[in-house]
């Protein structure tokens, strides 16, 4: 399976299933506790967003979560982490089955995160950008007591503006560099990425979070790229002007979030490295997974408290991950 663009510049296929799960059920999928299952892989940055948001908002009882393994083939993600290789709720071996059940012969990308309607076994949506917003807005009736406001109405325009440039230049920017098929396309993506990281560093130099004085959706989206930067993007995707650990402001910001409940305790560095280095064989033909980098720095002091800010606003931190949803021992930063 090839990932490098044959035309030079990588363009992400963004044709996602647009159905939404809403409080009023206008698309035929009303919010309903226990009805849906969020399918993720801890390896994937887009899915990692949904894992974090679900956890911060305390939606575990309302929305169950299935975790696919870190690798996949052209036929999609598999549930090889589960006994018998099947998701225990959906009873399927591959996420592809849920897509085909709704759209036989589905030809677009079978991606995570995806939300599946458990009674029918059909996929509802894989629109990753919309999923986390809807978890904040449409699922509000099922949020835990003390859940933070990740997408507060008065800050939505600013959050949306930040998310737009972070997606284009950083979240997707690392892929535009890594999957570039020409020197020109690679260098264009490379400079665009680091120019944006420099601007974000300037923005975060005197403010603890990207928007306002609390954690928002914008921080979640930037974090899932930053946490993968040194283990994967710096080497595998040739984003090597600087390591994250060599960008003092962003490194401190990322450590601050990592040490915040709901962020670092969702990160599986083993799955992350296995996914990129084993799956992208046109970039890494041997499939050898690097032994490094040293991850112990993630737990060192960051000093960002001096900037003020209240991580959860008027809310409270989430409780520890529930049994069965913890990152496996030895896969995190310790």
Briefly summarize what is shown:
By secondary structure, the protein is α+β, with helices and mostly antiparallel strands. It has helices at 45-57, 96-102, 128-137, 156-171, 173-178, 183-204, 217-226, 229-233, 248-258, 269-279; strands spanning 36-41, 64-68, 72-73, 76-77, 114-117, 122-125. The protein has two domains: 36-142, Glutaredoxin; 153-307, Glutathione S-transferase Yfyf (Class Pi), Chain A, domain 2.
Describe the structure.
There is one protein chain. Helix 1 links the parallel strand 1 (36-41) and strand 2. The chain is an alpha+beta fold and 334 residues long. It starts with 35 loop residues before the first strand and ends in a 55-residue tail after the last helix. The protein is 33% helix and 7% strand. The strands form 2 sheets. A 4-stranded mixed sheet has the order 2-1-5-6. The chain has a two-stranded antiparallel sheet with strand order 3-4.
Topology:
Layout: E1 36-41, H1 45-57, E2 64-68, E3 72-73, E4 76-77, H2 96-102, E5 114-117, E6 122-125, H3 128-137, H4 156-171, H5 173-178, H6 183-204, H7 217-226, H8 229-233, H9 248-258, H10 269-279
Parallel strand pairs: 1-2
Antiparallel strand pairs: 1-5, 3-4, 5-6
Helix pairs in contact: 1-3, 1-7, 4-6, 4-7, 6-9
